[in-house]
Amino acid sequence: MGNKGTLLKELYTNISTTGAVTFSSKPLVDKMLSYAEFKGAKTIVELGGGDGSITTGIIERMDQDAVLFVFEVNKYFCDVLEKVYPQDNIKIINDSAANLDKYLDGGKADLIFSSLPFSLIDKPTRKEICEKSRDHLLTEGKFIQICYSYLLKYQFKNYFHKIDTHFTLKNFPPAFIMVCD
């Protein structure tokens, strides 16, 4: 995936939108994705494609006939992702996750994965992303979020019925995984 040095420079240059000091580690990605049932999932959404570390894990696990929508506000990251994932069933979208409804064409997602930096996103946009994620998730679907603050669990309680929280030290910094349905 692209030149790691250039990707890291872009990450640090735009920390206010990337919200990260490093990319998600493979153990964190594997743990996050382990809470999802990929078999039979036809529509999958990723909020915050970044360097593609979660994207790669999703593609490795998803069914051949599934479609993955990857939302990323950083144009540079989108350009890199489009080069790495030219498949027709991988849609790289340079737009805010708050607009996910415009791309799902009235459909709903089986799975939504997010690494968005919710603590850095303004409250109205955060609310819109959570509402649209909830409203465009199938009843049996899951919204799975990586975050670095346990307090975000209380925010997600406003939108989801059940939230299971998991913690992993196998990332820098250590992270929480919120599994919401």
From TrEMBL:
Residue ranges that the Swiss-Prot or TrEMBL entry lists as coiled coil: none
SUPFAM superfamilies: S-adenosyl-L-methionine-dependent methyltransferases (SSF53335)
Superkingdom of the organism of origin: Bacteria
InterPro entries the UniProt entry points to: SAM-dependent_MTases_sf
GO molecular function terms listed in the Swiss-Prot or TrEMBL record: methyltransferase activity; RNA binding
GO biological process, one term: methylation
Protein's UniProt name: Phospholipid N-methyltransferase
Species this chain originates from: Indibacter alkaliphilus (strain CCUG 57479 / KCTC 22604 / LW1)
